[in-house]
């Protein structure tokens, strides 16, 4: 296990925790498995220490994460602003988890920044900004949950966490690595997992809870998107899938039913890049962009340059402020601009041939 803080930083972290009474833990907009699992693990850990802890997220999170211990207690700012705002205003410590910039809090940002209470960032994204008094950032790690594992180990706490805490951490790491199929090639990742297994988690059940709980609508959506909506660009080893809100209503799609769709085209031999465009269900005129890639293609650079986003080399996201038709045009332009990295033989194609 790695020491991620200096002795001075570790002492400062401990003092900030010890001096706090009312703690608010925040995650990024459209929280994913790492965001939810990391915040919940921290909540359980701090609650055991006698702190009054509230997890607050900007908007709704996928239904398939609601099974996590404590998930039903998470406060959604956009749904309960009148309740959440006073809690945020009264906090004497913030843990900002799985985000590197306050702008990723979106509607929650102003409320959090208005409170001068100290803030600690725990994250694994590139280029953290300095809006927090203590920044614990490790972009080389597979998930914010892995950062937390190393932090707890350095504190001498990892061997003492409860099964609920270990479950949340494992689920978070599993979600952010596609069940440990990407960004998880470091041996220490599995050292973390061994600690969590020793705390009594059922990793097989966790996998089933996340990946084997699809609704009938999700199964039909998958077929529809892959057969009707997927556009393959063979010469560029790329694919584009789109989903409108009208199609969501037509198919009865619920929150979370689109999770993982963006990964599926990468199963096509030779594919290097997959892009999924979906209309935002909460904001008109906004199209969410999800990107996944394999090998060395930098979809985080593509997202930052064209889609107002960023993330990791092989897993990124962004947003376009336009309609779907214009969004598709912009995606085509973006992909073509990276043709020099996408064209040519792919090591994943049969015999190294192009698609």
CATH domain topology of the largest domain? inorganic pyrophosphatase (n-terminal core)
Describe the strand arrangement of the main beta sheet, using strand numbers.
3-2-1-4-5-6
Helix content: 25-40%
CATH hierarchy: architecture of the largest domain: Alpha-Beta Complex
| Proportion in β-strands | 15-25%
Q: What would your notes on this structure say?
A:
This protein has 355 residues and is of the alpha/beta class. The chain folds into two domains: 205 residues, inorganic pyrophosphatase (n-terminal core) (Alpha-Beta Complex); 137 residues, Diaminopimelate Epimerase, Chain A, domain 1 (Roll). It contains 13 helices and twelve strands. Strands 3-2-1-4-5-6 form a six-stranded parallel sheet, with helices on both faces. It has a six-stranded mixed sheet with strand order 7-8-9-10-12-11. Strand 4, helix 4 and strand 5 form a beta-alpha-beta unit. The chain starts with 6 loop residues before the first helix and ends in a 13-residue tail after the last helix.
